[in-house]
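Q: Structure tokens for this one, please.
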Amino acid sequence: MRRFFFKYFFAGSLLSILYCFMALPVFSQNQILGKQVKATVDSSSIKIGEQFHLTLQASAAPSQQLVWPQIPDSFDHFLVVDKSKMDTLRQTGNNVYKQQITLTNFDSGYWKIPAFSFGMVSGDSAVTSPSLTTDSLFINVNTVPVDTTRPFKPIKQIMGVPFNILAYWPYILGGIIVLAILIWLIFFRKRETVQKAEQIIPQEPPYDQAIKNLHALEDEKLWQNNEVKLYYTKLTDIIRFYIQRQFGINAMEQTSDELLQKIKPITKLNQQKNNLQYILQTADLAKFAKLQPVREDHEASMRKAYEILEWTKPKEEVEQMNKAQASLASSEGITNNES
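A: Here is the predicted structure, written as tokens:
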């Protein structure tokens, strides 16, 4: 009896040691992986069509990459309503990953949520370690109890919602603001148009305006008061502005040499090239070379400016002046005859 006991005790001990050695690789692997995967639900019993949450959680060492299970939009009578973003925490040296999935079911009965498999990739290795699986879960989907002893109730009419102006105040306020902006824009544009219309003053003909400006420049007596540079600046601006309006040349933006080149195609203006060149060169010397032209230069520049205007003025104005002179001469002749 004693030999029999020791025999079976030795055999049992040997089997236990052998089992431990066989389980050692699995145990060691789980320690290396830091394995811990689980699936939980917030309710194991729901009504048909009711939503509940499935939470998947897994932990892994920082040196390992976790392969998350692919969850389809529907599986085993369950429909996926929503998936949260992956949440990562740090616990006891491991990374803990967590995701919440919202599910629902429209088939009454006792249904199983299958186990989910996770994979691990260690370091730079492209080989996935054996899968780590969660436990299966069961959900009881109940129907809504119906009392069949009672008769069917009639379909109710559509219920009207009482009007409450406070519920529409954001829209009313927005409409008032938009209406105020439209009124302001219309009024502002109309006022701006009126102001522009008021500002539009018919300009004098180029010749008349230039003659008037030359007379005004003479009355200022600038060069007589040692304002030579200002005198030539205004004189050249009057001639340039006249050429720009009368002949369409951008004379105000041209240099002296460029302007003399631009007038060549215009025969009437080009015939006054020497006079224009004299004025521009004298002005450049006075403004940039800081030379002081003498009195004869000032008077010659003004005289040549008048000559340019008289030579290039439009035919209509020449005809009007001839008619005015003729009428004046005839009136003087009549006066002499009467006397």
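A few notes: DSSP finds nine helices and twelve strands in the chain. Confidence is low (pLDDT under 50) at residues 18-34.
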